[in-house]
Amino acid sequence: MYMVFTNKGGSMADIYQYSDYRAFLRDWFKEQKSSKPNFSHQYLASKAGIGSSGFVLHVMKGERNLTKSVLLKIARAMGLSANQTDYFEDLVSFCQAKTQSEKDFYFSKIAAARKSLSVKNLDDQQYEFYSRWYNSVLREIITIVKDSRPEALAKLLIPKIAPSEAKKGFRVMEKLGIIKKEKGGYAQTEAFIEGGGPVRNIAVINYQKEMLRVALEAWDRFKETEISASTLTLCMSEELVEKIKEETREFKKRLFQIVADEQKAPERVYHININFFPVSKAVKEGREV
């Protein structure tokens, strides 16, 4: 494992293994506390030149954010090197980004820094898996074909992809452990997978956007009998919104079960998009909220 050291010689949690700066701060603090029982949030704040003794604790809990000037003070107090401080700053920017494009930008910097140091991190593979719409399709289609070589499968996808893209996708999935090599091709290790976590969440959003693009193009690629679409526009309370979200989650579970229980051999890979979003501002008692 790649290790770094404090200015007092003690080992420090490997910052390059983190995609969440708050988790890194919590683990680093726990490590310091275990070797120095008197170490405290107040001591760290004092060493960093921060007036509020409880500020760092609030940051760790997600109750406060870090500004650039404060994160530099904390990085110096922690004994981070210049490169580690740059990485820490990118972590903070990634976690506190308000838009998807900002998150993508800073995660690309995080992944590049890890790659340059040959640091292996599962988050990078998960991000790459969900950032390509066709990876999930490849993973499904290997269950219904005899020849699951990347070259053969690339031709079956709609729209088609290059064999090199299929090969790269299989490498990513192998590293994630969600497929395995078998004689003549590949096989799934799990029947179903779901995304989650801060890194996967931003990649899943990109994946959803890509699939919406593919769905839009489907109207020109398939016969009307091959696709199905339904749209509703309704007024409802915020309380009912939560109920409908729960209903969609339950519906997805039922779909999983229906597919799992099917007795006939699968013949084709399908994608189902479920989108639920507001198309107006909130209004209460006839006034805009």
Automatic annotation (TrEMBL):
Source taxon at top rank: Bacteria
Residue stretches making up the DUF4423 domain: 115-279
Gene Ontology molecular function terms on file: DNA binding
Coiled-coil residue windows: none
Alphabetical list of InterPro entries matching this protein: CHP02147 (IPR011873), DUF4423 (IPR025537), Lambda_DNA-bd_dom_sf (IPR010982)
NCBIfam families membership: Fsuc_second
Record-given protein name: DUF4423 domain-containing protein
UniProt organism field: Candidatus Lloydbacteria bacterium RIFOXYC12_FULL_46_25
